[in-house]
Specification:
heterodimer, A: 159 residues, mainly alpha, 2 domains, 8 helices, B: 169 residues, 9 helices, elongated
């Protein structure tokens, strides 16, 4: 609840400044934001549906058995690989990751998924190669993957 | 019309699964629907302000401005600018690649470009707010700090490898 209030608070302050400076641009911001939201809506709905089905079908015990604390490094590695190849906006991924966490998934596994999701992009790599070269892309994504595992391991240890 | 169907193909398939479940195992379907509804309520509160914030940022901070700012800094100042600009709520990563490419041509350092792309993808402010909501403050804070550290090290490593090779060529 605190977070939601914070988000609306930040938005309110930003809107006041924007309105003072230009009503036209503020209007445009709503149009731009609305269009982006509509574009993301299908993936939001899909992920929420998948959360519902996953948690509805799998009991917390099953989830714990699959990606819980006991599964160790192999589970984390698989989660990292899934994060690297999937292309869902992280905005949409957080509810899914959070729901798995609350159902008993391993912190390291969930953070490996989130971190590779945002740091490694196999699907976007052709675009990255075109813009920045093969070497840059391979290094950035490769190191990103290694660091994601490291981050996951640290987060698993401290949280 | 065809486009709308195509866009909503995945949610439609999921809806069909829900309907199927409702007939076969109503208990699970009811459970799933309740969980879906809980998350839906949370998302519908959070998503609109986040997207309006992104809209505001896109309107007030146009892409050529980002290029201008990033091009002007070097050293620690450049790194701070790269990180700061990356966290602004603007667009997806595909938008950042061409910006990064033109910046390298203009002489921006490899490490700053890595920092820029990394914070663009991983450390955006609206995403962090959503992350805090669903993952908790501790998770988000740890991920933020560790990711920033990882990006800095990645940038320094890549700077070494890529710029030394360039000198030889």
């Amino acid at each position: 609840m605190v977070t939601i209030i914070t988000i609306y608070g930040i938005l309110a302050i930003a809107l006041v400044f924007s309105l003072i400076k230009s009503r036209e641009k503020t209007k445009k911001a709503f149009v731009v934001g609305g269009k982006a939201l509509l574009k993301t809506a299908p993936s939001i709905l899909s992920v929420l549906g998948i959360i519902g089905l996953t948690l509805g079908i799998l009991s917390p015990q099953t989830i714990q058995k699959l990606i819980g604390a006991g599964t160790g490094f192999a589970g984390t590695l698989i989660a990292a690989a899934i994060g690297a190849v999937t292309l869902i906006p992280s905005l949409v991924a957080f509810p899914l990751a959070g729901s798995l966490l609350r159902a008993g998934a391993n912190v390291a596994t969930v953070s490996a998924f989130i971190t590779t999701l945002v740091m490694v992009g196999i699907v976007t790599s052709p675009m990255e190669i075109k813009a920045l070269g093969k070497k840059f892309t391979l290094l950035r994504n490769g190191l990103g993957f290694v660091f994601a595992l490291l981050i996951a391991w640290i987060m698993g240890a401290v949280l | 019309m065809k486009n709308i169907v195509k866009q909503f193909a995945v949610p439609l398939v999921i809806l069909l699964v829900f309907i199927g479940l409702a007939f076969l195992v109503p208990d699970i379907a009811r459970n799933s629907a309740a969980i879906f509804w809980n998350y839906f309520k949370e998302m519908i509160l959070i998503m609109p302000p986040v997207f309006v914030l992104m809209g505001l940022m896109e309107v007030w901070v146009p892409k050529n401005k980002i290029q201008e700012w990033l091009g002007s800094g070097s050293g620690l100042k450049g790194a701070l600018i790269a990180f700061g600009l990356g966290t602004l709520p603007t667009g997806s990563l595909y938008v950042a690649f061409p910006i990064a490419a033109s910046l390298i041509e203009k002489g921006a350092s490899v490490s700053n470009i890595v920092l820029f792309l990394g914070s663009w993808a991983a450390l955006k402010v609206p995403q962090l707010l959503v992350e805090i909501q669903f993952m908790g403050l501790a998770f988000a804070a740890w991920r933020f700090v560790l990711t920033l550290g990882a990006l800095t090290i990645t940038g320094l490593i890549m700077q070494r490898i890529i710029s030394t090779k360039k000198k030889k060529a």
